Amino acid sequence: MNKVWCYRKLKSYVVPLLMLIALGYGASTLAAGSPSFSATASGTTSNLTLTATLNIADADVSRNGNIYLAFNFNRQWFFNNGAGWVLFNGGIAPIYLTAPLANRTVDVVRNADMSGLVGGQLYAGYGLTENDMLVNGKFGLVYTVIGTTSLPPNPTAPLLGEAGRFVMLASQAVTTTPGSTISNGDIGIIDIPRTGIAGFTPTGPAGDFTVLSNGTSYAPNDANPAPFPYPLKYATLPIGAAWTTTGALITQVRTDLGIADTFLAADPNPGAPTQVSPIELGNLVLTRGVYRSAANISITTGALHLDAQGDSNSVFIIVTDGTLTTGASGSIVLDNLAQAKNVYWRSAGKTTIAAGTTFFGNVFAVTQVNVLAGANVTGRLFARTDRVTLIADTVTKAP
């Protein structure tokens, strides 16, 4: 259930009832073009930098409207009026900004000590009027302040080396059906020629695809310098210098991928003790740590929440000696500064991501990564000995 924020207006006066009520629908029921709200945070609770992002519904873009930022703590409400935070005692809600509506990111706090506000909740919203925002649900809870004391040990993350440049990487094949969107990383095939990259429509310079933005593709048989330009070093010194051939890059990628995968498979992790992972992770909340199972792992009974507890550097490592499978309700949710780039999934068998779900993290599958229709993945998809397959999916490399 979503928690939403509302006013109750009486006949002769206005009672500010800013409260949370439960509605029987989820975000997935919203039509395309509906507004969305999120927050990005860095640092710890005692030194927090926080921004809020408002994505405006298509129908509202360019219309004149108001931006609102609100914070609830100990049943008191505060609004940012553009000059600072003020206590709200009723009446008309203070406005952060009035302007033509467009997607925007706004500063909330910068290097602030929020340790005395643990449990406080930040809301962001907009509307053509205050009533438009409240009645039409154009707002959302975007962040909850969480204490950072007594955090569990933080695992050591693997070094990705040249593999880090890739959003998708496989030994034998990387394939897609029409309708996929891939961004912010490269596509690579390691052990066979470029014919292993299939289903993508070429465009522009050699290696570029219509569905791939801010990235290109590499294969061991690419001819340099024409038609394929020399690739540049991403994590190998000197960074930015040209590789002698694409084949030389691929050789290094194969090595770096193997090192990272072996590191994830090793037990114990140098930074944190190993915990036994449940074989069903749906409806659970995991804090940072290393979770390992000798059996198959599923996320099918509900969403899995990964809770960083206010530390944006928290690392999550989930390892199975079998397969990893998500179900229709098995989306991944990042809470309290958790970041996709710090989540690592390692399966000795294949990994399957269910259709229409949201998935965060870097997948290291020994065999296959199969992403079913309409999934939204933020992270990386690596298949060390076989293939990565997409069916009209959205895949974005985590920064």
Describe this entry's structure for a reader.
The protein is mostly beta strands and 399 residues long. It is 7% helix and 42% strand. The strands form six sheets. Strands 12, 14, 15, 17, 18, 19, 21, 24, 27, 29, 31 and 33 form a twelve-stranded parallel beta sheet that branches. The two termini are 30 Å apart.
The level of helicity is under 10%
Can you give the mean pLDDT?
A: 90
Give the tally of β-strands: 33
Euclidean distance between termini CA atoms: 30 Å
Total of helices: 2
Poorly predicted runs of 5 or more residues: 1-32
Q: Rough shape?
A: globular
Q: Report on the biggest sheet.
A: 12 strands, parallel
Q: Beta-sheet strand percentage?
A: 35-45%
Q: What class, by secondary structure content? A: mainly beta
The radius of gyration computed from the alpha-carbon positions, rounded to a whole number of angstroms, is 23 Å
How many distinct domains?
2
